[in-house]
Amino acid sequence: MVPALELLGVSKTFDGFQALTGADFAVLPGEVHALLGENGAGKSTLMNVAAGLYRPDGGRIRVRGAEVEIAGPVAARRLGIGMVHQHYKLVKAFNAVENILLARGGRRYGRGLAEVEAAIRAQGEAVGFSVDLTRPVGSLSVAEQQRIEILKVLVEGARILILDEPTAVLTDREAEGLLATMRALAGKGAAVVLVTHKLGEVMRHADRVTVMRGGRVVGSADPAGLSAASLTEMVVGATTRQERRPGAGAGAPVLDIAGLVGTRADGLRTLNGASLTVRRGEIYGIAGVGGNGQTELAEVLMGVRRPQAGRILLDGDDITAAPPRLRRARGLVAIPADRQTYALAGELSVADNYAVSGIGSGRFGGWLRVDRAAVRAGTLAALAAFDVRGARSPRQKASLLSGGNAQKLVIAREFAQAPRFVVAHSPARGLDVRAALDVHHRLREARDAGAGVLLISEDLDEVMLVADRIGVMSRGAIVGEFTAPADRQAIGAAMVHHA
Ligand code: ADP
Ligand code: MG
Fold first, then answer.
1. Cβ(109) to ligand 1 under 6 A?
2. Range(s) for CATH 3.40.50.300 in the chain?
3. Which CATH fold topology does 253-497 show?
4. N or C: which terminus of the chain has fewer CB atoms within 10 Å of its end residue's CB?
């Protein structure tokens, strides 16, 4: 099949800085093609070349097999190339119709408006977008603005659709909706380029992935044939491979749970005799299909839910009925799955979020007189030590941090005092590759310092990558245990056969 768009050996420098070096890229009609790479890899630059925003210093471009010169955005549009940029280019005071007309450079304003509106409505119906065409776009949600941007390029006749990090600004739910729309457009023959730095999106939604690193294309493959670990390695370069840890499973038990039973408010039994032991110096991973009791297990361990039967021993002491505060005092820390709800108070400052659990320790004065200077100094030190970026000051609201930085803040706080036991529930969900690696690195560090770590994740790749021992959870119980390096197929079989 002739590719819809080919970029061959494209190079680009900015003031002597080489942003692209001989980059090759090709997308087929009917395909969702992910362009994956870390921030600064050159993804936007390469796609801006295709969209006519940048003239390349070298290289060739072919559209549907024919070599072309793309002199500017108008030329790109005529070739059927439409790009939705990372930062929207809509005029906030105008409504959707006016914006789209403006982008066209329409002269016959009066008639054009009705025409454009009809075209947008038709296109919106075709792709299943409902957008308000009458309100100023500045008053619409980010997701709605994005839909308008997409409709804009579709109305302009794009057959090669480039979306630059479209899910970065969306909720998980909105992102899934958008990715389904991408798929539908590809189904109608469009060539879709999905620029992203999220591994999960690539694994779930792309037919093909091209990986960039440092301005170069390092490879292109079908993600179905790749493991998350090998894709990660392509993105960030060679990483230290997980070695077999001969000591795993040999340390003293730090957490010992037996026969946990739990029932949800609606009567469903979520924990059904769950038993397992996590030892010092090991990461015990819980693999399983979501909804098999993982959330309830995490909640019971954190102390926010009481089991109906069974017991939990921490270093040999029964903590089954202990409140969260007491568990924390004994060195049990948690990285909950829903960090924005359970781990952080978004309206509070970064500093307050960091200090809240340290106040009881006296590190920041006492409850009656908080030592603000100590809080500030402690927060700044933690932000640096845990590489939390995006906080201009410790006073900034925590809700403004990106997912990866919010998670690093949670970890900085939880790990402020060396933990004895860590329960981490989907700690890397929604994070980019680098942030996920950082999170995993912190878990290994805690383990290497002698803590026991329980990693609960629905992402089997994550469990395989990080855990020293793996327990498969199904219907509220551990139905099989494996020691790393474990056989993925055997784990998968245990997950499915007991379901
Ligand atoms: P990505 O989209 O993969 O995050 P970019 O293509 O935006 O990466 O950037 C690649 C590199 O080129 C970065 O180091 C960036 O700072 C640099 N760069 C991008 N655009 C410009 C520009 N207009 N002027 C100078 N440097 C730029
Ligand atoms: Mg970019």
1. no
2. 5-236, 253-497
3. Rossmann fold (3.40.50)
4. N
